[in-house]
Amino acid sequence: MMDIKLQQLRYFSLVAEKGGFRAASDTANRSQAALSTAVKELEKILGQALFESGHKAKLTPYGEVCLPMVNQFLSLYQALDTDLRAAAKGQLGQLKIASVPSVAAKLMPQLLVRFSEQYPQVQVSLVDDNALGVEKRLLAGEVDLALGNCSHRDEQHIQFIPLFSDPIGLVCQRQHPLAIKTEGVHWQQISRHNFISNGTSRLLAATPAAMLTEQAKYRVENITSLVSMLELNLGVTTLPKLAFPTDNSQLQWVPLLTPAIERQIGIFSSLDRHLSPQASAFLQLCLAEFGSIDN
Questions:
Q1: What stretch of H or E contains 176?
Q2: Do 270 and 137 lie in a common domain?
Q3: Which CATH number do you get for residue 110?
Q4: 3 pLDDT more than 70
Q5: Could you give the angle at the alpha carbon of 34 between the alpha carbons of 30 and 39, nearest 5°?
Q6: What is the pTM of this model?
Q7: How confident is the model at residue 157 (pLDDT cuts 50, 70, 90)?
Q8: Boundary-marking domain end, from 88, 123, 149
């Protein structure tokens, strides 16, 4: 059996719509002979005439049955073609992102606004986790991309593209003696006060300031609890600048001068699977927004 060709269906529908082969040929920018041949081939395949022999623009009863079905198919085909091309450009589908809390709270809203303006039909899911957690989610295939720092990177399975540097500083009450050191503090000055270790304190490792965490009076992982303890002046801590709650009027962030420490914030993708078009589009948006630190 011969297969029906898409072009044959299009020409049949067009002739019926335009009321004749001449008008249809003008619209299709093809000769009447080409359209007539295509329709005749379709009739041969179907085994029934579609147009009356004495009136080439008049549908036969069989043609009247076929026309709405053909038009429905062509409409579905056009929708499929449009959707497939849109999906290839990242304009459809889902995007799942994991991010460390500071990036999720401070930077992701603006990024998602820009992304949604360009790709309004893409559904976005955002989950925040600690630095190790976002990488685990990426490796497990739970998310398409992850944003965080590279301290736990699995180089065999994860590609890390750095975006910007985030300096580490002291966080204390505004009335604390160290809060006036707006130009910056040294770790020895911090060591004279009760230190509260937190999840980002691992960034102090392999530096002289590591003794701050080793001798910490308190160890807290939850940022809400950490802020409450700082507000009560139970001690001081260190945080990346991006993680500092800028809306808190009781606390002060002071640069750490020695050792000068920065965490590299970037975007992670899996080396074991292809990025979806929408994930690739978001990655390019991040690069355009922040630029690679290698540039």
A1: none
A2: yes
A3: 3.40.190.10
A4: yes
A5: 120
A6: 0.71
A7: confident
A8: 88
- Percentage of the chain exceeding pLDDT 70: 96
Domain span at 256: 167-262
Tens digits of residue pLDDT in 190-246 = 999 999 999 899 999 989 999 999 999 999 988 899 999 999 999 999 999 999 999
Residue 24, both tokens: 């249809």
Question: What's the CA gap between 124 and 112, in Å, rounded?
Answer: 8
**Same domain, residue pair 183 and 257:** yes
Same domain, 153 and 269: yes
β-pairing verdict for 123-128 and 94-99: parallel
Sequence-distant contacts of 59-64: CB under 8 A, at least 24 apart: 59/16, 63/16
Name the packing angle between helices 32-46 and 21-28 (round to 10°).
Answer: 110
Render the burial of 30-46: b for 16+ CB within 10 Å, e for the rest: eebeebbebbebbbeee
DSSP secondary structure of 207-265: STTHHHHHT-SEE---HHHHHHHHHTTS-BEEEEGGGS-TT-TTEEEEEEEES--EEEE
Q: Report residue 187: phi and psi, to 5°.
A: -60, -30
Bridge partners of 51, per DSSP, are: 59
Residue with tokens 């690739």: 280
Query: Where does a domain end: 71, 88, 105?
Result: 88
Look at residues 166, 161, 149 and name the one whose alpha carbon lies nearest to residue 262. Answer: 166
* Sequence-ordered list of residues with C-beta below 8 angstroms from that of 213, at least 6 positions apart, any chain: 195, 197, 201, 202, 204, 205
Same domain, 37 and 118: no
Which alpha helices (H) appear in the chain, and where do they start and end?
A: 6-18, 21-28, 32-46, 61-88, 101-106, 108-118, 131-139, 187-190, 210-214, 223-231, 277-290
- Overall domain count for the chain: 3
